[in-house]
Design a protein that fits this description.
This protein is an alpha+beta fold. It has helices at 2-25, 31-36, 100-128, 134-159, and strands at residues 40-45, 47-63, 66-70, 75-80, 87-88, 93-97, 162-164, 169-171, 181-182, 187-192, 197-204, 216-221, 228-235, 245-252, 264-281, 286-287, 292-298, 301-312, 316-321, 328-330, 344-349. The strands form four sheets. A six-stranded antiparallel barrel has the order 2-11-14-13-12-15. Helix 3 (100-128) packs antiparallel against helix 4.
Length: 350
């Protein structure tokens, strides 16, 4: 009885030992073992692609034509045909100045001219029968021509008292009233074309050769809901020395109610396009205090290459030096990688 009890206890001890050994074998790996495992990363194969440098520059809308209406001469306003905000046709009379003295002078000259012509006709007939000398006839004829010139000068002076619209457009606010005495220094109102708008902006000098006549650009006004387009019509002939920028003007392709002269615009440009650029994802470039680097996969290890960058967009950046086509750069897990560290590539993009 005692021996059988001893055997039973021995069997229990053996069973417990076996179970304990089994648990030890099934225990998870230690923290050190987990650290030794190669991290999983994503890669990107470098290849030639097309890229352009996207920049945003400020601009301003302006009327295609806008003119300050002024008088050429001093005078008192006797007629005022300006309705603020109205549209007028080219040649419409806007302001009439007092011209009574000029009209009286014109009538006087016309009477004198009529008498002078009659005298000239008589003198011509006398000249034909040698009743007067050629010199006497020439003096009479000169008087006729002088009066004709005086009449023309008076008519021009009368025209200057009539201020007309230089082109069809919309009038602004007027600054004068009926009966006011004005001079050429006084602004009467403004007029601008309403069927055309221009966009003016400047680009840095490095892009001065990239923007050309007839280029199509995109812009959006401050507070606007839509993108608009314009076509470059001209560029300044030189770069401004103070700002190192080139001034450009473009014609808006379609007039929209939200486009008003003078409003601020954000101009989006795609410049410096390269057809065979080496591109990598933006997140693959590591910026340091001294340079820029990318992590390159060499078999199953990491090598850090110093690179030089060029144009960029929202997704990719151009590598101008430090990589070659076919290299695989690492795009994830860069913060934990060290030189010559072993990695496991989970996914490679092209």
């Amino acid at each position: 009885m005692y021996k059988s009890h001893i055997k039973f206890l021995a069997a229990v001890v053996v069973s417990i030992s076996v179970v304990s050994c089994g648990k030890q074998e099934a225990a998870p790996p230690s923290a050190q073992a987990r650290q030794m495992r190669a991290p999983e990363v994503d890669g990107f194969v470098v290849r030639h692609q097309s890229i352009s440098d996207k920049i945003e520059v400020p601009g301003s809308l302006m009327a295609a034509e806008q003119t300050q209406i002024r008088s050429e001469v001093n005078g008192r306003i006797v007629k005022l045909n300006i309705t603020e905000g109205s549209t007028v046709q080219k040649g419409a009379l806007l302001v009439k100045l007092f011209d009574g003295d000029l009209q009286a002078q014109l009538k006087k000259l016309k009477v004198q001219l009529a008498i002078a012509k009659t005298t000239e006709e008589r003198q011509r007939q006398l000249l034909e029968i040698q009743g007067i000398s050629q010199q006497d006839y020439d003096l009479v004829k000169l008087n006729v021509e002088t009066l004709e010139v005086d009449i023309e000068a008076t008519q021009i002076a009368i025209v200057k008292t009539e201020i007309r619209a230089p082109y069809s457009g919309q009038l602004g606010l007027r600054s004068v009233s009926l009966g006011a005495y004005i001079s050429p220094a006084d602004i009467i109102t403004t007029i601008r074309q309403v069927n055309e708008l221009k966009l003016e902006f400047s680009v840095p000098e490095k892009y001065a050769k990239e923007v050309k006549k007839n280029d199509r650009i995109s812009f959006r006004v401050d507070g606007g809901q839509r993108d608009h387009t314009a076509t470059v019509i001209a560029t300044e002939n030189s770069v401004e020395q103070t700002t190192r920028t080139l001034r450009i003007r473009a014609m808006v392709n379609k007039i929209d109610p939200e486009l008003v002269p003078g409003v601020f615009a954000r101009v989006n440009l795609q410049l410096g396009q390269t057809a065979d650029a080496m591109l990598v994802p933006t997140q693959a470039v590591i910026s340091t205090a001294r340079n820029k680097q990318v992590a390159v996969l060499r078999r199953d290890s990491v090598v850090f290459n110093v690179v030089e960058t060029g144009a960029r967009d929202s997704v990719y950046v151009q590598i101008t030096n430090g990589l070659k086509v076919g290299d695989t750069v690492i795009t994830t897990g860069l913060m934990v990688l060290k030189p010559n560290a072993k990695v496991s590539v989970k996914r490679i993009s092209k």
